Fold this sequence. Notes:
The protein has 322 residues and is α+β, with helices and mostly antiparallel strands. It has helices at residues 5-29, 36-66, 70-98, 152-155, 294-321, and strands at residues 101-108, 112-114, 121-125, 136-144, 157-164, 171-176, 181-183, 186-204, 207-213, 224-227, 234-242, 245-253, 257-262, 268-270, 273-276, 280-290. Strands 1, 3, 7, 8, 9, 14, 15 and 16 form an 8-stranded antiparallel sheet that branches. Strands 2-4-5-6 form a 4-stranded antiparallel sheet, with no helix packed on it. The protein has a 4-stranded antiparallel sheet with strand order 10-11-12-13, with no helix packed on it.
Amino acid sequence: xxxxxxxxxxxxxxxxxxxxxxxxxxxxxxxxxxxxxxxxxxxxxxxxxxxxxxxxxxxxxxxxxxxxxxxxxxxxxxxxxxxxxxxxxxxxxxxxxxxxxxxxxxxxxxxxxxxxxxxxxxxxxxxxxxxxxxxxxxxxxxxxxxxxxxxxxxxxxxxxxxxxxxxxxxxxxxxxxxxxxxxxxxxxxxxxxxxxxxxxxxxxxxxxxxxxxxxxxxxxxxxxxxxxxxxxxxxxxxxxxxxxxxxxxxxxxxxxxxxxxxxxxxxxxxxxxxxxxxxxxxxxxxxxxxxxxxxxxxxxxxxxxxxxxxxxxxxxxxxxxx
Length: 322
């Protein structure tokens, strides 16, 4: 004999309350990442709730097939859609958690990187790896920033090109801190930026020993460190601005003291070498998150709302008639 559907509904409510209590305990006790047992417990509650939803769906579909009254059929259809919408949301949640992907992607102006796992700083990931790695590339074309604006961060923006497959399929997008862009199954939003000077180290006017862009966090007068590529010594760097542009970089170390190098200026001696900075660019750090399952979430929410409208549409009509 099948369990009474009212008993199943009561158990479902109890599970919802239990899930809410688990979430409250997590928010109250663990301000950062929750331990693994918490996620296992929450998953167990959700799985049990999904099983009960499937049973409720089964019972309501059977009842819908037997009911001949038109009004009851509409209400039962709304109830079926409501429960099916909740079930879709649960499935979407598990699906997205399996492919969970949170990472940081660093790009310098003019740089193109392939959308492969090795180019990300992985923060967390699910048990399954996204299947669309390697199918795209991203280029940071231009960064827009106004250092004299009181809302600098809010106005920080960039032009990005996403390549998928052949170069002819390039897609240009404009992005900002509050306007992320999407590519593949991921969403990227600006979270940090800085200066990237092109440092050229020479042993003589004609012999270049090392050259490359160095991403540094020098915004708002900060001092950053980087390893001197020829010795591994830590070098302090600060930036000097004028009219919204960087005019010079100050390099310093315990051995060589402080040296000011003008952007596009004459080469300067530092740590026994000739150093010049022909140009600088901006770099951006993008917070990247997986959005797998988001369309299923939209569909589930739409089905849920449609079920509510059907379930209570006759009630509203009867009240209006009265």
